[in-house]
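Re: the 511-residue chain
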Amino acid sequence: MRAHDQSEILSPEIMTKVDRAAIQSGIVGYNLMNAAGAAVAACVLKNYSAVTGAVILCGPGNNGGDGYIVARLLHTSGMAVRVYSTVDPSVLKGDALLAFRDWNKLVVPIDDFEVSPGWLVVDALFGAGLERNIGTQLAEVFKHIQAAGCPVVSVDLPSGVSGNTGQIMGAALRANFTVTFAAPKPGHFLMPGGQLCGAVQVADIGIPQRLIVSHSDSLWLNSPALWAGDLPQPDRNAHKYQRGHLGVFSGGFAQTGAARIAASAGLRAGAGLVSVLSPGSAVAANAAHLTAVMQRKIDNEADLESLLEDRRYSAFVLGPGFGVGEKARKFALMIAESDRKLVLDADGISSFGGQTTSLFNTCVRGETRLVLTPHDGEFSRLFPGLYADSTLSKIDRTRLAAKRSNGVVLYKGADTVVAAPDGRAVINTNGPAWLATAGSGDCLAGIIGALLAQGMAPFAATAAAAYMHGLAGHRAGEGLTAETLVENIPATGIFSAGTASAVDTSEKDRG
């Protein structure tokens, strides 16, 4: 898996270091501010040229400086402009003070704020660096803006949204557009703040890409550019076993559907062979529904031990519909001890709630071979301490969980985060809302298992599977079922060089 510099996500702290490095390299800071203001003004003029006028809200720092430049450029273009500030502009410093002086027109205290329908609001209050709660006065201003129905263009990030965590700091504006600079920030994607950003545009303001890459925190927006080159591609000389054998464990007679969904997804995602590993009570039920997917009876540890002697089984999925308890724990440990790759999902995760020591101690040896796919509740059972720590972002939690387990962790949600033990992480945003349906997670587990079975490294396989799963959701459309989702899993060949951009369904508005 290779880093792709156009998908870097930088925290506000790292972005500050990048800005500082750019200025130290000889770039004039005020030129960067002017370029940022010009990008915001261009967004306003392109999308809202017919508004009555623009209200510019300026804060106490460089974000406010950007706002003064926007005000000047919109005024020059012929648009009516009113500027409000949270501080006396005379106390501004550095480039923000220069921007205020170049505006050189009336600035009204925020105490006297008013706005009418038909006007646009440019939010240049705090941006991505906010670390404290919004006060009650600004919270009332935000309510007034939203009640008036004014479109909002935010500078860097909607004010009130944490750039690090995506959390709401007391109150926040909902933007129609957010214009950020050089690279997106975690808060543009992490919920709940991510849903307040509207269309995110990343503007090039003249910071060299080499500085962004050199300050990378190994966090990227998930896209085919990161892992397309690692995807298994069909070889006309290969036979089915060279494409991997995936084993998917089934639950008992009345709990077989989830395993069949995962197995069907694994076959669709390219595994050469897929076997459902059923207890005796479920053999008949699964046999009645399976065709290309094979079946093998696995009732107990002795059966599993015999199966593991066949090294052609290269990866396993354990959890969908399996049942929570000691059997799941024992099976998972046996697979881990065999050095085979394991996707632990659903009941498999819940079976280790409060009992992770044995699994993690086993998986700490050697290369990463464990993939965990928790949703919020499952994460809280598996990593209660991390879940309860309110100082951590979802990215922090996922990274720490991956390090603790020596596994790849896919923390599900509208802001799915995938992290590796070495700290690499991606945020996946291409999943449509209608993916939240029964069997969707089983399908995802099967795709991951198939890519692992074909020899793909766990982090790249999991990131690729998350994206493929989202794309399948778009293809299947609103009202999808688990079965139609499986039918729409894309072939890996569409992500080959020259075609990856054609399958992008979510980031086109993100710059």
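Residues 20 and 29 are 9 Å apart (CA to CA).
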